[in-house]
Amino acid sequence: MGRWEPGAAGRLREAALALYAERGYDGTTVADIADRAGVTARTFFRHFADKREVLFAGSEQLEQHMVKALAEAPASATPMETVAAAVLASSDLFDTIPQEYSRRRQAVISSTPELRERELIKLATLTTALTQALLDRGVEPDVAALAAETGVAVFRVAFGRWIAAPEGPDGVAFADVIRSTLDNLSGLTA
Amino acid sequence: MGRWEPGAAGRLREAALALYAERGYDGTTVADIADRAGVTARTFFRHFADKREVLFAGSEQLEQHMVKALAEAPASATPMETVAAAVLASSDLFDTIPQEYSRRRQAVISSTPELRERELIKLATLTTALTQALLDRGVEPDVAALAAETGVAVFRVAFGRWIAAPEGPDGVAFADVIRSTLDNLSGLTA
DNA sequence: CTTCGTGATGTCAGTTGGTGACATCACCAC
DNA sequence: GTGGTGATGTCACCAACTGACATCACGAAG
Hints:
Number of strands of chain A: 0
InterPro entries (chains A, B): DNA-bd_HTH_TetR-type_CS, Homeodomain-like_sf, HTH-type_TetR-like_transc_reg, HTH_TetR, MftR_C
Domain HTH tetR-type (chains A, B): 6-66
Protein name (chains A, B): TetR/AcrR family transcriptional regulator
DNA-binding region (chains A, B): 29-48
Number of helices of chain A: 9
Oligomer: homodimer
Shape of chain A: globular
Keywords (chains A, B): DNA-binding, Transcription, Transcription regulation
Order of helices and strands of chain A: HHHHHHHHH
Largest sheet of chain A: none
């Protein structure tokens, strides 16, 4: 596994986020990102399929983690409880990185239509993965689809609340926000 | 309003759908579409922001129509009934064009990631528009967001079922499929 | 210590999406 | 018929991507 400076993909991710935040997505060229990371533009496209994908590196990992949590939920759990477990498990991954990173990343995504599109398709993919995991547990197709869709909606809302919450020592744990959002959902359907 | 051959935008839409279906989205260049429509590539971009947008021309119209129906719902209706009225009204627009057109269009979109992304952001825009319309009626923010999200989910599912249904004289009316899907939803939350 | 293979990177040429600037043409109003 | 106006054509250009091929670091085999 020979190479010059290890961690090219990580450097490209950092450089991209910094430049997108600084000059905006449109004002940043792939060559700019590659320069800052100390590689060429061609190398950028060897690590990421396109200029958008560089901000969505962890999405497969998140999907796998949530599907795993869903599959490992007790057999006695209802479909919605099962999905809730998967959504709660997502906080494991976000706890390993500084919240400030998530915040800056989301600010860039929210303000760039092209990145919003990519984010939406990632969530759609997550939805179908959760649906499939529910089907594997023997849940009825209609119920599975609706439960997965609802779970992703909860994730969406909770993530937005967590990002908007204050940071630092008096910050809120993502898992708590998810629990609160799930409570809200119960209240609505009651 | 002077021009050479009227209806350039319409010809471009037809040409794009035909070529996307025939050679695939990636196998079609904007120059190809423009050639078939009898214009230049530059003119294509004067009518449509990009290569994807050409398939989503009616979306603002659909959004306006649904928002209008939502706003005109009786004041006595619950938020979910209000949203249901908006979703039902969407069938008005689809009844004016051949179902075969919707089918071919959806086949292309479903098989092309870039077009799927664009479709998702259109539905996200529709969701926020419905949410805003509910807020204008005085509905609580949390309820409004959830109701809008649920309504769009119903539209999504119903549209998929309608597209998959047989065509021709023994075809199904879109409005009936929507009503059936709304019934399913009631059953799920019961 | 040399050689050799392998994987990551650089280089280069090319296609395509997309945009700005300017010229041009058809049509309508006066 | 003259002039204005809006849609179109033309041209030049940048940036996103891609395929083909060369090259370099490093580790394994001798």
